Amino acid sequence: MPAAAYPPDEAERQTLLASLRLLDTEAEEVFDRITRLVARLLKVPTALFSLVDAERQWFKSRVGMETLETPREQAFCAHAILQDQPLVVADAATDARFADNPLVTGSPNIRFYAGVPIRSSGGLPIGTLCAIDDHARVLTADELCILIDLADIVQKEVQYRERLAVAGRHLEQSEAVLDASEARFRTIFDLASIGISMLSPHGAWLRVNRALCGIVGYTEEELMRQTFQDITHPDDLDIDLAQLEQLRAGAISQYQLEKRYIRKDGATVWVNLNVSAKRGAGGAIDYLIAVVKDIQAQKEAQAALDALHADLEQRVAARTDELREREAELRSVIENANDAYIGLDANGAVTVWNRAAEETFGYGPLEAAGRQLESLIVPPDLLRAHRGSLLRYLTGSAASKLGKRVELPAMRKDGTLLTVEVRINELEVRGMRMYSAFLHDISERKQAESRREFESRHDMLTGLLNRRALMETLPIAQSRANRGGQSLGLLFIDLDGFKAVNDTHGHEAGDRLLNEIGTRLRGVVRKTDSVFRLAGDEFTVLLEGLHDAGSAHVAAAKIIEAVSRPVAVDGGEARVGASIGLALFAPNGDASPEGLIKEADERMYQAKRAGKGRICPPAP
Questions:
Q1: Percentage of the chain with pLDDT > 90?
Q2: pTM for the whole structure
Q3: pLDDT tens column, 483-510
Q4: In the annotation, is 537 catalytic?
Q5: What are the boundaries of each domain within the chain?
Q6: Please, is 307 exposed, middle or buried when counting C-beta atoms within 10 Å of its C-beta (0-12, 13-18, 19+)?
Q7: Fewer CB within 10 Å: C terminus or N terminus of the chain?
């Protein structure tokens, strides 16, 4: 599992992360609302706002995840913060970076991941907003835009916290040296990028900075002639005043709320307001400090998201209607499919049995419903091979056969056997696992394949094995000889006088004679021996388990005697003889199959030259 590299600015990034005071803090609704939206809009079980610490990733907000943190070396987010663009992993199980990650191979079984980096005002990545699923999937362009927009809301909140932290530090430093450096305080106050004001305990403006004036559209002089009550939206004033009263009474030390100001031009602007009190030595309030952040864009984005959510719900409803129509169409297709279709529940019991299944196996839908599939179609003597359950056989192996074509022997209701090609797929519907199986009767195809295989290895005239079969059988026989410590013999047989039979009686008579010779050869050799017709009037006999060369010579003599007997043709009879060459292979010998055949062939020609009807054994 390749761990993500550390960013070049890791030390600076860690310093910033610590200063934000987000790590190991309580959950906050401002972030939880975003992760809930991610989970709902992208339809994923898990959504996280993750912070990448030095040795861990810690979840400030989480949906669908029990643990608060995981090691950094396992974190997908540690890879995401290295990118300028969102990191999208369609299937972690096939991604070299994550395939052996414990979070992929074990709980929570991550397959899909999409994470958008969350950055500081200076561009330092502190973590991600991410969506996680335990199923592989492809993120659409609309879904990616939704995730980016939501991440932007989180990022703006983080940057606001960053500015608050900076402003807070500056204010604390300024307060400590206020008597010595009023000019420095004024500079920080005026140049802050967020609105800051100082108010009397009763809410009158004491000081306002430029950023606040920009938010409400007034000059400093104009704003000082107003009160905060004057520019607060009437619908938001009561809650603001109630919070202020609790602050004055000492019940709370500060308060924060979202409210609307009425700008000078009459427009409203949403702000995030944070008010705290500076108290003197006796506990009385010296002045109030109000920090104001313009969140109008965030509110507009939220409104747009709400509208998008409503639109998505409408589209889902429309899509549901379409799916119901498609379901009806699918049922019709399944019922009228040429292949047998069988639906199974998680335990392998039949739930769907179409017309083709009834025609293939002989059971009606009511007979099949609720029964285990193997009890309907698996021959009884093969049940043990399937470990008592065909479904477990197909799904329980290390390399699952799901989605693959598997050939299996099957049985009809009347007991007749057939061969079927099965393809089973796993489905999950409303949290329930089920299986769909398509079965195709391939009995005729298998029979045709068997015929072709027989014809490829047998001589069609005599039914004997052919030259191809000899070249396949001979190396295997040599291996057996080596293991068993016994010799084997190869007899190369050529018929004497066969051409004269063809010339005198015709080719049909010659074919009958060859067929009879093949029958005699099979009858005269042992069951452990093999007879082959090579071509024309050439035959070979493979003798296995020989103790000595004499045994092979005895077998060859029997063949000559059997071949030499007359054969009835066209109301008469024909006679042929046989010349035989013998080659021997001793255990652990070095002769190749081709060399052994060549040796026997040459010795057959020596027998021919010596006067025919003879056996030419190997040299002593």
A1: 52
A2: 0.40
A3: 988 899 999 999 999 988 888 888 888 8
A4: yes
A5: 10-164, 194-294, 304-332, 336-444, 458-616
A6: exposed
A7: C
